[in-house]
């Protein structure tokens, strides 16, 4: 089944609060704009719940098929921050910080909810960077030589023999 509508761009309008979708009508072969007003949303609202409700709304569902839930959550997050008085650049900076993995962070110290959030971010990044067989730049057997210039640190578990354990 071919999609009738293909999402091109999706954004947020602060005044009046609304999600704006630029989409392609594949039947009529035209590019159109859809404005979805956001009602009953405050700075205390749950962004992920609001995004799910919009995506599952029968009036908007066919248009939002090609828009990820995460993108809608981001738009709601930007709107919520705007309602709290933050500038767009502050809000984007905070969102980027919250949705980026810090390689130095000790994930053993995170609670279950935060750990699940980090795993979700890693899964999404993996899928985005994943190479599939039908990708034009797919290579079957990639071999990489890592530089040996730097001094390699030895770990205790590297040097112990089986007898010592």
TrEMBL record:
Record keywords: Cell projection, Cilium, Cilium biogenesis/degradation, Cytoplasm, Cytoskeleton
Localisation: Cytoplasm, Cytoskeleton, Cilium basal body; Cytoplasm, Cytoskeleton, Microtubule organizing center, Centrosome, Centriole; Cytoplasm, Cytoskeleton, Spindle pole
InterPro entries (alphabetical): CEP19
Keyword Cytoplasm: yes
Entry annotated with the keyword Transmembrane helix: no
Cellular component, GO annotation: centriole; centrosome; ciliary basal body; spindle pole
Family per similarity comment: Belongs to the CEP19 family.
Protein known as: Centrosomal protein of 19 kDa
């Amino acid at each position: 089944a071919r999609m009738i509508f293909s999402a091109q761009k999706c954004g947020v309008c602060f005044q009046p609060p609304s999600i704006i979708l630029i989409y392609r009508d594949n039947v009529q072969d035209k590019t159109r704009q859809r404005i979805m007003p956001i009602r009953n949303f405050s700075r205390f609202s749950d962004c992920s719940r609001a995004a799910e409700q919009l995506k599952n709304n029968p009036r908007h569902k066919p248009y939002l098929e090609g828009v990820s839930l995460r993108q809608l959550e981001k738009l709601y997050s930007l709107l919520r921050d705007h309602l709290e008085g933050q500038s767009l650049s502050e809000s984007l900076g905070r969102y980027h910080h919250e949705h980026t993995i810090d390689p130095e962070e000790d994930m053993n110290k995170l609670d279950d909810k935060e750990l699940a959030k980090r795993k979700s971010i890693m899964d999404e990044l993996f899928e985005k960077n994943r190479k599939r067989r039908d990708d034009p730049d797919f290579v079957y057997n990639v071999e990489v030589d890592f530089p040996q210039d730097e001094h390699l640190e030895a770990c205790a578990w590297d040097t112990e023999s089986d007898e010592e354990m």
